[in-house]
Structures are given as C-alpha cells and as structure tokens.
Amino acid sequence: MKIICLGGAGRICREAALDVAEHTDFQLTIADIDESAGREVAASMGDGRADFMKVDLFDEEAAIECLSGYDVVMDGTTISLNDRSTRCIARAGCHGINLNGFGDEYEYDPVFREQGKVHVPGFGMTPGTTNMMAKHACDRLDTVHSVRVSHGAFRPIAFSASITETTTYEYDPDLPGRVVFEAGEFKQVPPFARPRDIALPEPYGTHPQYIIPHSETVTLAEYLKDKGVQLIEVRGTWPPKNMMLVKALYEWGFMKNEPVAVNGSEAGVMDVIGSYLMQSEAGKNTELYGYALHVEVEGERDGEKYRHILTHTHPASDGSVPGWEGLRAYTRNVGIPMGIGVKLIAEGRTECTGAVIPEYAFNPEDVFSELAARDIHIHEKVDRIDEFDWKGGD
C-alpha cells in the first residue's frame, strides 16, 4: 500500500505521516514544495520508512503524474490550496483525505465516483473527530433536537503559515460560511456571535466560545436530515490571550485585511500582522498546549429526552509523557486522526465512493478504538432530561 503525504513537511501533516509509519507497514512518501524540510521529515521517520518527492501543485499536470500510482493521498496543504490539491488527487485516480473540509472538495465528487475512489474532506480533530463524536450520540437517538460542537485549540497564534491563514480566514467579517443551522435553514452570523461558556476537560477549564465557520455545521445537517434536527452550532476558542488579540483586531476593523501602504510598499494589514506574529516569540509560544473537545447532543429515544455530552482527553504537554511535549500535544491531536483516516481507507473500512462527508465515511467506534490505542480517549456522559436546552431564537 503506497501513501503520499502532500504538504508533508508541515507541523501537523508530519504527525499524521509519523502515525501511519508507526501503526502500519505502508510505503510512505513525503511530498512538499520545500525540498529541504521535506527531506528532513522523511529522514526523521527512521530506517528508510519514508522517501521524499518534490511536488508543486501549481504545476498541475506534473503534480498529477507524481500522485498517480499511489493508493491514498494524505493532503496536509492549506485551506487556500485544497481546491487545487483535491482536483489533482481526483484526476490522479487516488483515494484522498484532508484536514480542512471547507467545501470546494465536493465539486470533484463525480470524478472520484467515476474512479471508484473515496475522498474525505475535513478529518483532523475538528472537523473530523468531532463529527465522529456527534455521530456516535446521534445514532443512539430516534430523533435529534440539537447538536453543539465546541473545541479549545491551545496552541500559539502563529506557529506556521497555515495556522496564521486559518486565523484570518475564520474571523473574516464577510465570510459567508460562518453559519448555524436553525429551524431548517442555515443562518449567517458575524464573528464572536452567540457566546456560550463551555466547560472543557481539565486542565483547560471553562471559557466563552463563539460561532466559528467549521464544516461540521453543514455535514451534520446533511447526516441528520431525517432525524428532525432543529439546531446545529459549532464554537471554538484559542488561549485567552489569543482571543483577546483577535477580538481587538476584529473590533478595530483589521480583520477586513484592507491594504496599507508602508514606505512605498503595500500589503494587507492582516498579512503584515500575521508576518509579525510568525516572527515574534509571543506568536510562536503559549502557556498551555493541547486540544479539548466538547460535543453536546440532545434528542429523544423511546419517548424520553436525553442529553449526551462527549469530551476527549490526551497525554499532558508538560513533558511527563514522551512525544507529547509542548506544541506536539496540539499537533499530534490534529494530525493523528488524519493518519487514522488513511489507515481506515487503506484497509477498506469505508464502503463509500466519491467525495463524502466524514459521517458517511467512517464508523465512530473504529475511530475511537484507533485513538485509544494512541492514548487519546473519548468520554461520554448520558443524562435523562425534562426539557431541551434550546427552544428557538438566539
């Protein structure tokens, strides 16, 4: 089985590649435009587990030729490249999976179907693991009233270009994809809409979280279309200092990324701020590292109302568990689920073809079992309730 990792030199994709190397005997190729970093990652796998191939997605015909012959493409490229990367994967006749899942990938569904291949957009920690947590709860209910997905991503604000891009993307004031699903329709909301205090597992604590533009809102609405779902909301937070900065940038209009002239040169103001943060110690460090998920589902079973709350835990970032120190407690959480997705696709544990949402692609119990083998655990609490928490309106 041959696996190629697009964007494999990135901090998160290299964790996914390492997971594949550690838990399978698949042949691995690290592919990146950055030859020096890509070769370093390939060498770090040890014992010749991976080789390197330079791939430039802007030379599409050459990129397609490079991908052809591989069984699964693990796509760790940035949001802005996912349309191009997915087109290359589809035309090369490979299975595929990526981290972001923001929508352009589904345009290539007919090509994947024609090839008899599956492509799963958005399979990291969130989206990805959160989809599996919600599906697990929803499958145990006759009808679903509401789904609230929340997460805390405890990482520096700008430790890589893709993370900096994600920050600017998610808080773009004009972004059409920042929606909630409510009473049968998608409703667009502004940044920092619908604050809700979410109690995350320790050591992360309780924080206000706001609606973010994640694909779970859309994919869960599709998956639950026959279960009467009335509300789907996806929230998120970063470390408090990061959120204070982003909120201030938003309130001052910086998130519009309007051009600014400095000493005869012109650039978007957020591009300038992002570049500064990537070069500063404050932008590359934070006090607490890791990831925390919280998924709340309410619905009915056998005429009774229930609330399912699912959370997840992982080894601490304090150095007490080798391999989880500092930033790796964040990057492993995001990268490992994509590596698991590659393993499940390669082993034929998805019967779908086409570009499909995670809820249709994988069995949650398969994913949870693989996560547990890596010391990442899903916890569930189920309570019978008298009334649903949401009754309509904001």
SSE layout and pairings?
Layout lengths: L1 E5 L4 H13 L3 E6 L2 H10 L5 E5 L5 H8 L4 E4 L6 H11 L2 E4 L10 H7 L2 E3 L8 H10 L4 E12 L6 H10 L8 E4 L2 E4 L7 E5 L4 E7 L4 H8 L7 E7 L2 H12 L7 E4 L2 E4 H11 L1 H4 L5 E12 L2 E10 L14 H19 L7 E2 L2 H4 L2 H9 L4 E9 L9
Parallel strand pairs: 1-2, 1-4, 2-3, 4-5, 5-6, 6-17, 7-12
Antiparallel strand pairs: 7-15, 8-9, 8-12, 10-11, 11-12, 13-14, 15-16, 16-18
Helix pairs in contact: 1-12, 3-4, 6-8, 6-14, 7-10, 12-14
Explain the overall architecture:
Helix 6 (129-138) packs across helix 14 and helix 7 (161-170) runs antiparallel to helix 10 (269-279). The model has no long low-confidence stretch (mean pLDDT 94). The chain is built from 14 helices and 18 strands. The longest helix has 19 residues, at 328-346. It is an alpha/beta fold and 394 residues long. Helix 2 (35-44) links the parallel strand 2 and strand 3. Strands 7, 8, 9, 10, 11, 12, 15, 16 and 18 form a nine-stranded mixed β-sheet that branches. Strands 3-2-1-4-5-6-17 form a seven-stranded parallel β-sheet, sandwiched between helices. Helix content is 35%, strand content 27%. It folds into two domains: 2-120, Rossmann fold (3-Layer(aba) Sandwich); 129-329 and 375-385, 2-Layer Sandwich (Dihydrodipicolinate Reductase, domain 2). The chain has helices at residues 11-23, 35-44, 60-67, 82-92, 109-115, 129-138, 161-170, 216-223, 240-251, 269-279, 281-284, 328-346, 358-361, 364-372, and strands spanning 2-6, 27-32, 50-54, 72-75, 95-98, 118-120, 143-154, 179-182, 185-188, 196-200, 205-211, 231-237, 259-262, 265-268, 290-301, 304-313, 354-355, 377-385.
